[in-house]
């Protein structure tokens, strides 16, 4: 069982899709990581050797990517900043309404439902 950035990687999945389980890594970033390490994208997580997993961990420790809990904290801080400066997006978020200009006369029921 491999834990990477406090996320358990599924053993039976390919390394390409297993890395996408880490918050902040998508398919594109995952394929770039596989190329850097020289791993096949079809290789399963369980087939990785101990050295390869250590290289993977070192890559994330030395990278400047913001991932997992750090990324979540940054997003919360950004939202708090929008609320503090009283930006339109922040106010809409507080009211529980759609933020990106969607129609509210008839179609904001799901956004309002989550508010309650």
Automatic annotation (TrEMBL):
The UniProt similarity line reads: Belongs to the universal ribosomal protein uS13 family.
Q: Which UniProt keywords apply?
A: Mitochondrion, Ribonucleoprotein, Ribosomal protein
Q: Does the keyword Ribonucleoprotein apply?
A: yes
Q: Which organism is it from?
A: Minutocellus polymorphus
User: What's an example GO BP annotation here?
Assistant: translation
- Quote a single Gene Ontology cellular component term: mitochondrion
Q: Which Pfam families match?
A: Ribosomal_S13 (PF00416)
Keyword Transcription regulation assigned: no
State a single Gene Ontology molecular function: structural constituent of ribosome
Name the domain of life this protein comes from.
Eukaryota
Originating gene = rps13
Q: What is this protein called?
A: Ribosomal protein S13
């Amino acid at each position: 069982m491999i834990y990477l950035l406090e996320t358990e990687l599924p053993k039976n999945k390919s390394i390409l899709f297993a890395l996408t389980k880490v918050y902040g890594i998508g398919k594109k970033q995952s394929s770039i990581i596989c190329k850097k390490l020289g791993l096949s994208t079809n290789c399963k997580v369980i087939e990785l050797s101990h050295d390869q997993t250590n290289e993977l961990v070192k890559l994330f420790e030395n990278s400047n990517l913001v991932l997992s809990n750090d990324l979540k904290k940054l997003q919360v801080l950004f939202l708090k900043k929008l609320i503090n400066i009283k930006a339109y997006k922040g106010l809409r978020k507080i009211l529980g309404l759609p933020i990106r200009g969607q129609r509210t006369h008839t179609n904001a029921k799901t956004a309002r439902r989550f508010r309650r």
